[in-house]
Design brief:
heterodimer; A: mainly alpha; two-stranded antiparallel ribbon; B: alpha+beta; six-stranded mixed beta sheet; 10 helices; about 30% helix; globular; ATP-binding (chain B); iron (chain B); P-loop_NTPase (chain B)
Chain lengths: ~575, ~325
């Protein structure tokens, strides 16, 4: 910086002091442009529809929306269901994180992988599975939970316990056991150790997991839409209803703004408190120890969570194999058809198998897009900063690219429709529209998987490579590539899984002749007929199995940051 | 019996026998150092005493009562780690008062005890500092105060000074010795550093590959190392065997033994000395001259001379053996 104010500095020196910020800006430009065109523009277009009436800004009308009693109900439901989902996820996820990462249990690696799968499962599939389990005719129909708020909270827990296990489990696994041992030697009982030493040490991971889970619960779309029916609506599903069914854009915009504000606050909190493991401290994780009598509570909670995860999936699988009063593969054979409604008209424009192919193709496109942008973002935000300004800029960028995590996918999807409709951005009919939207949804996950690994590389390694004569590119190849290829592969797997299951934005953007699998499932569910229902179950099983295979492959890579935020 | 007693204790990790049939006794008020190279099982032994590792065979008892089923937090043994392991989210006062809080000691009484302990470890006025603001030596002092706050029946010290630099280590070792004496604490110390052991402990047990190879009073162990490896580990510079050993022992006026351990300072120039040789190199240290002397019939050996002696490389010199700086070793160098 001193070079820039000094008049005697040579142009070469001035260049070198400028080149760092310029490189930073240059690298950030691509991702920022992508985010600008495909996120900020659509979202603001959507908001503008609500705020601008007849060419003039109308804030009062938007505020009026917030005074509607129905909106109050929706807000209240969103808050308490998200809070309840978060509490449940923590209550089951924390003991499971302890049991699966600190105890020497048989099968603990497969169990960890199994409990990670729900996180990437398509929300529509989970909705279907829970409905099937809880419906009056289902195995748990006697509980009378079908269409209840409890079912929604259970659905949210199904997804988000995985996030808690992942984020807190990896932190717990790497936790130095010696402070806890020191406390025990000072006379602290296991419970006191947990309260006074372990939980404070896990606080960053806990706070970050809690805020992200709350975010996911509060913006959950597919679960609330399929399980909530007409009785319960959250902000996210309400935006969908308002835009899609009622065409009340003003109200939708008002809710979107509210949602964005809350999400930004939560993201800032999560960003501040995110667990950043000290990369200079190389520690080998402690050996897991054998389960003791005191671990019974944790094991029971883990068992409950397993039941919660396995029961709906099993019920889904069994349902898809049900033909009349017997068993068979009829529903799977019917996937090659377009379904049938009582009048004889076709339910779908294309066979379900075509939709599966579309889904896979779309997922491939979304994956390379999110990887390309995500890798650039990860590089930009993790390079060693010189000076406070540079550090602020980098952490600001980091937060900006997390935004798609919490902004309503419905808002993004609808925004795409209205913002990318005319030249020069007439992408409405482009086959790339759906993958672009899905890539945006997957982007935060990709960044969060790669960035911690890149950030953990000691900058002095690159300096050492440079001092030995390696060019910057060569230095990246020798220093960064060996550590980043696995996380990159893991991120690719996650992006693929997220894209396969994405429903919120896709439901707006997918064309009728090229629907993705989740869209087809939702449509099949909306049509009466035993075969349609059976086909929806079979398609769900196919989608869940595909996702599970991808996620299990990712889990085998054993990247600690994969799926953590 | 009173105090700690280990009776044929073994600790097994899967296929590895980390502690192999160890028996030790420690009377109340005494300090025992378990000395051994890294990986010899001494830390595992300490953790087993603390109740952090299950014992696979044998018993650990206190005052004659088996501690088998007693969990760590009910043993009343405080444990102090190599790097202190202070709780980073608590102040110095909070760390020291941690165990008092657990015992529901009132705030005023707690504050008084914390101040008392801070004074004992020489850190008066540090109560409100956070561990991150302390130096390595200060952190160890706080860790010691925290461990002493429970008034433990037994204090377990895991390489308490190893993480510190040399000067600080020497000073803190003396302080530690004094603090343990003043508070009358029974302590079990494990270390790989013989100087730390000598500075702090009353008794010593030398451990190798999971087994205790020698134990007893400091001076007993020092005067009569059980074997060559032990002698080298205790800080003797060389071990000579056979005729060479006999020559040194005869020159020292001692009984002949299969081997002899010599310190670097065992040979000193003396006009009437029994050995003769030629100075091959010399180096000045703050305290003395360090010589390498090519001794007739014995080869190259270390010797020391006062700083004011006029010696130069190539000079002939006569040497005597300082009896207090050699030790007869009963057994031959073990094959391992």
């Amino acid at each position: 910086m001193r070079d820039m104010v000094s008049t005697s500095s040579t142009s070469g020196r001035r260049w070198s002091s400028l080149s760092r910020p310029l490189t930073l800006v240059g690298l950030a430009l691509g991702p920022l442009a992508v985010l600008g065109v495909f996120f900020v523009l659509p979202v603001s277009a959507m908001l503008a529809r609500g705020f601008v009436v007849d060419g003039s800004l109308d804030v009062g009308g938007v505020l009026d929306v917030l005074a509607r009693p129905r909106v109050h109900r929706v807000l209240w439901f969103t808050l308490w269901s998200a809070a309840a989902g978060t509490v449940m996820s923590l209550a089951l996820g924390l003991p499971a994180a302890y049991a699966l990462y600190r105890l020497d249990l048989p099968l603990r690696r497969p169990l960890r992988a199994l409990l990670l799968v729900p996180f990437a499962l398509p929300t529509v599939v989970v909705g279907v599975a829970f409905r099937r389990l809880l419906a009056d005719s289902g195995p748990l129909g006697f509980l009378g939970l079908d269409g209840s708020a409890i079912a929604i909270v259970l659905g949210l827990t199904f997804f988000n316990a995985a996030v808690v296990i992942r984020a807190v489990g990896t932190a717990w696994e790497g936790l130095d056991p010696r402070p806890a041992e020191a406390a025990a030697a000072l006379g602290a009982s296991p419970w006191q150790v947990l309260r006074t030493v372990t939980l404070p040490a896990l606080k960053p991971a806990l706070v970050s997991a809690t805020s992200v889970v709350f975010l996911f619960c509060a913006t959950s779309f597919g679960v609330v839409l399929t399980l909530g029916g007409l009785r319960y609506s959250s902000v996210e599903t309400e935006i969908y209803l308002l835009t899609n069914n009622l065409l009340d854009l003003r109200a939708a915009a008002a809710l979107s703004v509210l949602q964005i504000l809350v999400v930004v606050v939560l993201l800032v909190v999560a960003q501040r408190l995110r667990a950043t493991p000290d990369p200079t401290q190389e520690r080998t994780p402690p050996r897991p120890r054998r389960a003791r009598r005191g671990d019974v509570a944790a094991l029971v909670a883990t068992g409950l969570l397993l039941v919660l995860v396995l029961a709906p999936m099993t019920s889904l699988l069994l349902g898809s194999l049900r033909v009349g009063d017997g068993w068979g593969l009829a529903a799977y054979r019917a996937l090659a058809t377009t379904g049938a409604s009582p009048g004889g008209a076709e339910v779908l424009a294309v066979p379900v198998t075509d939709a599966l192919l579309t889904s896979l193709r779309t997922a491939v496109d979304a994956t390379w897009m999110s990887l390309l942008v995500g890798l650039l973002v990860a590089v930009v935000v993790t390079r060693h900063s010189r000076g406070r300004v540079e550090r602020r800029v980098r952490s600001g960028l980091d937060a900006v690219f997390m935004l798609p995590l919490g902004v309503s996918a419905v808002t993004v999807g609808f925004g795409f429709l209205i913002a990318l409709d005319e030249p020069p951005l007439a992408l409405r009919d482009s086959p790339l529209l759906v993958p672009i939207a899905q890539a945006l949804v997957a982007l935060p996950l990709v960044v969060r998987t790669i960035a911690p690994v890149l950030g953990g590389v000691d900058d002095r390694q690159r300096q050492a490579a440079a001092s030995l004569g390696a060019s910057p590119l060569r230095a990246v190849l020798t220093v960064d590539l060996p550590v980043v290829w696995k996380p990159l592969l893991a991120a690719a797997g996650f992006a693929f899984a997220v894209s396969l299951g994405e429903f919120g934005a896709t439901s707006f953007l997918a064309r009728d002749d090229h629907p993705t699998l989740p869209v087809v499932i939702y449509r099949l569910l909306g049509h009466p007929g035993e075969l349609n229902y059976a086909m929806a179950l079979a398609a769900s099983v196919v989608l869940a199995a595909t996702t599970a295979v991808v996620v299990l492959a990712v889990e085998r890579l054993r990247v600690p940051s994969a799926g953590a935020f | 019996m009173a105090g700690l007693s280990l009776d044929h204790v073994s600790v097994r990790y899967d296929d590895l026998l980390a502690v192999d049939d160890v028996s030790l006794d420690l009377a109340p008020g005494r300090v025992l150092a378990v000395l051994g190279p890294s990986g010899c099982g001494k830390s595992t032994l300490l953790r087993a005493v603390a109740g952090l590792e299950p014992v696979s065979r044998g018993t650990i008892a206190w005052d004659g009562r088996d501690l088998g089923g007693v969990p760590t937090h009910k043993r009343g043994f405080a444990l102090m780690f190599q790097d202190g392991q202070l709780f980073a989210h608590l102040t110095v006062g909070g760390n020291i008062g941690y165990s008092l809080r657990l015992r529901r000691v009132g705030a005023i009484e707690r504050r008084r005890r914390v101040d008392e302990l801070l004074e004992l470890v020489g850190l008066t006025g540090y109560a409100d500092r956070l561990p991150a603001t302390l130096s390595g030596g200060e952190r160890q002092r706080v860790a010691l105060a925290r461990a002493l706050a429970v008034q433990p029946r037994l204090l377990l010290l895991d390489e308490p000074l190893s993480a510190l630099d040399a000067t600080l280590r020497t000073r803190l070792a003396l302080d530690l010795r004094q603090i343990l004496n003043v508070s009358g604490t029974t302590a079990l110390l494990v270390t790989h550093d013989h100087e730390e052991a000598f500075a702090v402990a009353d008794e010593m047990a030398v451990m190798r590959a999971g087994r205790v190879v020698q134990s007893g009073d400091l001076s007993t162990v020092w005067r009569a190392p059980a074997d060559a490896e032990t002698a080298l580990f205790l800080g003797y510079a060389r071990v000579l065997t056979g005729d060479d050993a006999a020559r040194i022992l005869v020159a020292a006026g001692l009984e002949v033994s299969p081997a002899v351990a010599v310190r670097r300072s065992a040979l000193v120039p003396d006009p009437h000395g029994a050995l003769a040789g030629r100075v091959r190199s010399l180096r000045t240290t703050p305290d003395q001259l360090r010589l390498e002397v090519d001794v007739d019939d014995l080869g190259l050996l270390d010797a020391v001379a006062p700083l004011d002696s006029h010696l130069a490389v190539g000079d002939g010199v006569r040497l005597r053996v300082d009896v207090s700086r050699v030790a007869a070793v009963p057994r031959q160098v073990s094959s391992s």
